[in-house]
Amino acid sequence: MMRAAVATEGPERCRNLLCLAAFEIASGFFGTAREHIVNAAHCSATGRCVSPRLCGAAEAPPAAEAAVVSLPAPRSCAVAPPKSGAAEILALTPPTAHAADAAGNRVERRPLSLGRLQSSRRLSLLLEYWRELWLQSHGAMIDFDPVRLVQISALGWVHLIDVSDADPTRFSVPIRGWRVPNAAIGESREGMQIGEHPVRILAEGVMADYAAARDNETPLYHAIHSQLRGHRYTYRRLILPLSSDGKRTDRLLVATDFG
Description:
alpha+beta, eight-stranded antiparallel sheet, Beta-Lactamase, about 20% strand
């Protein structure tokens, strides 16, 4: 039986095809997925790609190194006192959530307006596609076209999250974007449940945001700054609700931009 987990295996160009196959499986297109898997195997065995347009073997992946810094200096979370007359502005600004633990891990999540997406072409185009899909069929996975991820250079930068369980700790990751930096945490893996994540403060924030996007059936956009196990990460994250049956939101597409 084909599984989404194969998306993390093989050379880089094969990972693109396998990741695409994983999304085809999630959308119910098993024949197309099988074709991608066969092509990936051929590419891995011969070094010749029979599907260059989809696998993007000739394309250099967007770099995330600028947003990932090893062994960062501690950052102050002190908040300056508000200036006179600033109360009205603060009331209109979404609060920033801070969390830290005894191990030195820190996570800062700042909600952003969807209007700020214009700074990220990839996320903007993904939101446009999601809006089309939502109007068409309430975000039904059967209508989701994984090739659109290739066209907007998002393949490998997005996760598919299963949020069908009422318990957020049991939300799972059927497809993990293989390009997304992993905070040097090997335990954070494709197929895991969010409640199993080894950094609890990160898991709790993720579960809260995923549950909110699911329950409110609305996109959420955040700026994330974190320090996890000796690495500092800075990125934008877009959460988009989807549905396995076109009725109930039980899947999320989570896209990241480290640019």
